[in-house]
Amino acid sequence: DTSGSREPRKNVNVNAGGGQNALLKENFHVDISTSDGITPLMAAAAAGKAEAVAVLLAHGACVGANNGMGKTALHLAAASGDEGTVGVLLRYLQATREGTQEPMDIATDTSTDTAQRNPYEYSLEFVLEAASGDDGETALHVAAVHGHAHIARQLLAAGALTSAPLAISHESALHVAAMKGWPEVARALIEGGADLEQKSASEQTALHAAIIFGHEAVAELLLKHGARADSVWRRGASALHEASGKGLDRVI
């Protein structure tokens, strides 16, 4: 079963020598999934196993498949914080989009003749902006949640949109970094062009979020980069109102 996947499954029959890839040579579906929609590629990505991710991609694993929660391998790799795993996925998508090399070339040293290329690839843009489940998290949101500034920079360099909102709250990755108190993630997003004045569904900016959750370091960073202190949200409350009520002396 491949519940949660938008891709047709395929058989993989690889004639690799030396006893390598023994499970794949047994004609397993490379995208076989568990009852909750986890494929082998997702399992490897979640564990931060870059080499396993590379092998599975080389044998046709669907990079855009999503599990029962709507998360792709890139979401799970971003959560793991493993730069190598995220890099393998992004390079695969980039090379497939540009048609400059076969997926096998960036995954392993094995000849492309020994692997079958999945004809149902999703685009780099699609996977970067894929929103998971009901919350609408992109991989960039996931990196922000976990405080992985290095992963955020990787995703931004690949073209991730800083403005992508969560489904219900409409919070950007910068809102998330502000709420979680991750100044380095916030810095990466700001340097990546994040809109400091983007508002959530409740009319909060990232500065409001940082102050409400008591994260002075993030609030100071946002103010240093030009966040408007006079922006208001519910009942006309400004950042100054919130900081005063929280007793955040450094940002009052």
TrEMBL record:
<dbReference type="InterPro" id="IPR002110">
    <property type="entry name" value="Ankyrin_rpt"/>
</dbReference>
<keyword id="KW-0040">ANK repeat</keyword>
<feature type="repeat" description="ANK">
    <location>
        <begin position="36"/>
        <end position="68"/>
    </location>
</feature>
<dbReference type="Pfam" id="PF12796">
    <property type="entry name" value="Ank_2"/>
</dbReference>
<dbReference type="InterPro" id="IPR036770">
    <property type="entry name" value="Ankyrin_rpt-contain_sf"/>
</dbReference>
<keyword id="KW-0677">Repeat</keyword>
<feature type="repeat" description="ANK">
    <location>
        <begin position="169"/>
        <end position="201"/>
    </location>
</feature>
<feature type="repeat" description="ANK">
    <location>
        <begin position="135"/>
        <end position="160"/>
    </location>
</feature>
<feature type="repeat" description="ANK">
    <location>
        <begin position="202"/>
        <end position="234"/>
    </location>
</feature>
<dbReference type="Pfam" id="PF00023">
    <property type="entry name" value="Ank"/>
</dbReference>
<protein>
    <submittedName>
        <fullName>Uncharacterized protein</fullName>
    </submittedName>
</protein>
<feature type="repeat" description="ANK">
    <location>
        <begin position="69"/>
        <end position="91"/>
    </location>
</feature>
